[in-house]
Structures are given as C-alpha cells and as structure tokens.
Automatic annotation (TrEMBL):
Pfam families: Abhydrolase_1. Keywords: Hydrolase. The keyword Protease does not apply. Transmembrane segments: none annotated. GO terms for molecular function: hydrolase activity. InterPro entries: AB_hydrolase_1 (IPR000073), AB_hydrolase_fold (IPR029058), AB_hydrolase_sf (IPR050266), Epox_hydrolase-like (IPR000639). It comes from Roseateles violae. This is Alpha/beta fold hydrolase. Residues 21-253 form the AB hydrolase-1 domain.
Amino acid sequence: MNAPVSPSVRLHLQSQGQGRPLLSLHSSSGSHAQWRALAELLTRRGGHQLLMPDLHGHGRSPAWPAQAADSLRIDALAALACLDGVEEPVDLVGHSYGGAVALQLALLQPQRVRSLLLYEPVAFGLLRRYEPQGEAWQQIRRIAAMVADKPREEAARLFTDYWSGGSGWLQLNTAQQATIAERIATVSRHFNALFAADWGRPELQRLRMPVLLVGGVLTREPARRVSELLAAWLPDARQHWLTRAGHLGPLTHASQVAELIADFVQREPAAA
C-alpha cells in the first residue's frame, strides 16, 4: 500500500454560499464547473457552503505531482487540504472518478464526513479483486488499455464516446475536445488509481455515514457493477437510478442530479 503523500501544491478551489460545508469532486476530464447547477440551486435554497476543487491536472489546478504514484490518495489528500479550517464534518459529493476519490477520502478520515452522495463511483479495483473473470472487469480493462495506447486525440474521443454511450465527442465544440485531449494523460493515471482501489469489505463497512449511490439506467456495465457491490457492502447505503440518464448524468441531467443532492444533504441526519 502506498504511504500517504502530503500535497505540496494546493488545488484550485471555488467556494460559494454559507452554511454547512459540502465538498464536491468532479469526474475525469472535467472540472469544478460541472457543479454549476448544484451551486445555483444551493445558493437559492441557502444553508450550505459549496466547496468545489479542480483535481490535479484539471481546470486551474497543478499537474499530477512529479514522481507520485497513481493512487486515489493523491487527490484525496489534496481534497482534504481544501478543508483546512473547516471544523465540522462535511457532506461529500463525487461523480465517477471523483466519487472514488470521495470514498478514499472517507476511508482516510471518516470522522470528517457527515454523508456521501456518489454518482457512479468507479472504484474498478473492486471488480479486479472480486470478479476478475467477469465481463465488467474485462471490458473496463480493454477501454483503459486503449486510452493509454492510442494517440491523444483518438484516446480522448474513445474515452468520451464510451462514457457518453455513443457519439458524445461529436457533440463537443473544438475547444471542449481540445481540453479533454489535453487532460487525457491524467485520465490514464486515473484508470491506474481506480484499478488499485481494491478495498475489502471490512474496510468499507467502517463507513457508517449515510450513503446515497446514484446512477443512470443507461450506464456502462462496469460502473453499474461497482455501484451494486458498494450498495451491498456499505452499512448505511441506498441506491437511486435515473431512468433516462447514463454515466454522465451530472452533466446531461444536471438539474435533476442537483435536486437529488440538495434534497439528500438537507434532509439526511448525520451518522450516529
């Protein structure tokens, strides 16, 4: 197991609102901007301070630290550093890679987390450890290998089309395509980190806080299967599936997902 690495450079952090802290972690190739609908909704409702970092190699944050391992701890520890000065437990939200980072953060310091809302947290190491012969694991291994091996723009297109469930690449403008291509090397590091996230059931059962696992019915099988395993193993977890959404639900159904998050964090009591 890799030893914790203290972040030497701060992540770029956007903060909005006042009240109980909510830390939101974006998906691979994205940035804090994906939480715009959530920020607007919580601003209208009040009661929360939304903390939105850009993870390493994304948005306005520094690149992945030189010589650092491909580990979820890199972004989890940097996200924890965003909570310096925050004394009360936070509501923690994450999408895809950001959801897996949120789980890693909670495992490192469970006392800092009041609740977890995770949209398809892709901790693929669970598939590698527990279902190595399953089609879900074999599928995501192939996708990760192709993303790592292909030229940058081709890899960015493959990655985008896979998670969008079709031709998502063609729906992006030139600037958006260039941004994803620029971040694709970090995305490959994300895959490595996710494959190493092979927590055991005893570790996950230490997370006693309320957890809502949200997903899209139209998602890819590897993401669905990880969510199912987590729902079975986390002590206080329940699932919610959006019937017309896929893996990119926080982007394609931003208002609906924002409502789910706001309702959950405003109604859910803290863990005992």
